[in-house]
Design brief:
This protein is of the alpha/beta class. It has ten helices and 17 strands. It has three domains: 193 residues, FAD/NAD(P)-binding domain, CATH 3.50.50; 101 residues, 3-Layer(bba) Sandwich (FAD/NAD(P)-binding domain); 69 residues, no CATH class. The protein is 24% helix and 18% strand. The protein has a seven-stranded mixed sheet with strand order 8-14-9-10-11-12-13. α5 packs across α6. Bound molecules: flavin-adenine dinucleotide.
């Protein structure tokens, strides 16, 4: 049973403590709350505002489909970097026999996220509200969260953990969304999936697991599948070795040499990719804007299929279906769908060709992923932040433009994309770059504007000394 977020109520005796309001109770919001409250001495109280009925799950971890696995091993999914066994112990306490090398279902991870908050709810420093935040406005004290039920929650600081925008399901559309609930398609019919990434794997895997007999066709621009995990040992790469600020072409050739080094030592390219992970944030930060744009244009699709890999258990049925011919992977561009539900004509243009082709399908599923344009697909809260000038979109339109410690310009609001981890709070002095999972984050020690050592023109807000 999922955590009922209405059961956690505020305790008046902690009302004097500095207050952090977290908007969004997906994995990022829950991890942030857990890190803030984990130390029983931490003088802080936290409100998590979540619009859905589940905490810690978001889209990724609310699936109940057992074939939807985490793409990261148990050993790398602990909520606490200083306790890497935490997730493994939680699994074992539930009677699940796993090792650190296992990949468990995403639904299981959602339950772990949910359980993370339960022990922290007893001392009154945590409250969770089921509501949608429509506006965050600066106040003399800090910031106020305006909710859709009319409540206004004052706080010293706010954290945006609102995740990615997803396409709205369109009941009239001939093309189903990847996260849209629908009855199974006719068993023998052809299903066309647009996209060949992890969401396509989810959809194709679920169809195959349900005994679908018809053809499954995945269409994507480059017809690249996510690569498969294999046992390995990440290369130890020091920061001094990383060619910070080098052009993308030089970076890629350096990475290829790293992969060769890994192979010479009996490993695989995965050891190079994984060895680089601790340096990714710095690498990106030091990349000139034009090179960032070049990376997104040319290298990102290749990087992503190597970086976000598939568990072997998820890859096996797909590989079998490709070998048997039940599944095909086509390189090309989806151009549209016509017909009626259950009898759809898909128009697509093969890569490098001038003319389009068509395919008949009983179902078409759009697995092109999250909506990336933060302006066009902004929720009311983000639209308000942008419209009021309190936030702006980063030059590459990847998300909100933030200072290096993730703050917005005119209010103590920290913004996290899902790829950005929550800072690790503590009850004492500032601790630079603490670690969460396999990612690092910074948490400043005073609640005021600081220069934060950054090189852009965004001011940096940080939390009080006693948090
Ligand atoms: C299908 C899928 C599979 C994935 N698999 C993995 C994986 O295996 N391993 C991995 O590491 N990562 C995976 N990811 C990446 C994943 O997005 C992150 O790991 C993580 O779940 C993101 O969490 P989040 O809290 O940032 O965002 P979300 O999970 O999107 O949560 C954001 C939450 O904020 C709430 N919210 C938004 N706006 C408001 C508002 N104004 N007021 C109140 N509430 C609001 C939403 O209801 C939502 O619950 C996957 C992603 C997807 C989509």
């Amino acid at each position: 049973m999922k955590f009922d977020i209405t059961t956690i109520v505020p305790a008046p005796r902690v009302a004097h403590l500095p207050h952090v309001v977290i908007i969004g109770g997906g994995a990022s919001g829950v991890l942030m709350a857990a890190h803030l409250l984990r130390d029983p001495q931490a003088a802080v109280r936290v409100s998590v505002i979540e619009g859905r009925h589940m905490l810690g799950c978001g889209v990724a971890y609310s699936t109940s489909q057992p074939s939807h696995l985490l793409n990261t091993r148990v050993a790398n999914m602990s909520a606490y970097a200083d306790d890497p066994e935490h997730f493994g112990r939680w699994l074992s306490n539930r009677g699940e026999e796993t090792t650190g090398a296992c990949f468990v279902s995403r639904g299981t991870y959602g339950a772990y996220m949910t359980d993370l908050l339960a022990p922290l709810a007893s001392d009154g420093r945590l409250r969770c509200l089921r509501a949608t935040c429509l506006r965050l406005a600066p106040t003399d004290r800090g910031v106020a969260a305006h909710l859709d039920d009319g409540q206004v929650i004052p706080a010293d600081a706010a954290v945006l953990a609102t995740g990615h925008a997803l396409p709205e399901p369109d009941p009239e559309s001939l093309v189903l969304g990847a996260w849209q609930v629908a009855p199974p398609p006719p068993r023998d019919g052809r299903v066309v999936i647009i996209g060949s990434g992890l969401s396509m794997i989810d959809q194709a895997g679920a169809l195959l697991a349900a005994g679908h007999q018809g053809e499954i066709v995945a269409i994507s621009r480059r017809a690249q599948l996510p690569r498969v995990h294999a046992p390995g040992q990440p290369l130890r790469i020091s920061m001094a070795e990383v060619p910070l600020g080098a052009p993308v072409s030089a970076l890629m050739s350096w990475l290829r040499k790293l992969a060769q080094r890994a192979e010479q030592h009996g490993g695989t390219w995965r050891d190079a990719v994984d060895g680089l992970r601790p340096h990714l944030r710095r690498l990106w930060r030091d990349l000139p804007q034009a090179e960032r744009a070049r990376f997104l244009r040319h290298a990102a699709p290749w990087w992503e299929v190597h970086r976000h890999r598939l568990p072997p258990e998820s890859a096996a049925p797909i590989e079998r279906a490709l070998r048997s011919g039940q599944m095909r992977l086509l390189a090309g561009r989806f151009e549209g769908a016509s017909g009626t539900r259950g009898r759809v004509t898909v128009l697509w243009r093969p890569r490098g060709r001038d003319s389009s082709q068509s395919l008949e399908a009983v179902r078409v599923i759009d697995c092109r992923g999250i909506l990336r344009d933060p302006h066009e697909h902004a929720t009311p809260l983000i639209a308000d932040l942008l419209g009021s000038g309190r936030a702006r979109i980063d030059p590459l339109r990847l998300g909100l433009d933030v200072a290096p410690c993730w703050t917005l310009p005119d209010a103590p609001i920290l913004a996290f994309a899902s790829s950005v981890p929550p800072p690790v709070p503590h009850s004492g002095k500032s601790r630079p770059f603490p670690r969460y999972g396999n990612r690092s984050a910074c948490w400043q020690s005073s609640f005021r504007r600081t220069s934060c050592g950054r090189q852009d023109n965004l001011p940096c807000w940080s939390l009080p000394e006693n948090i």
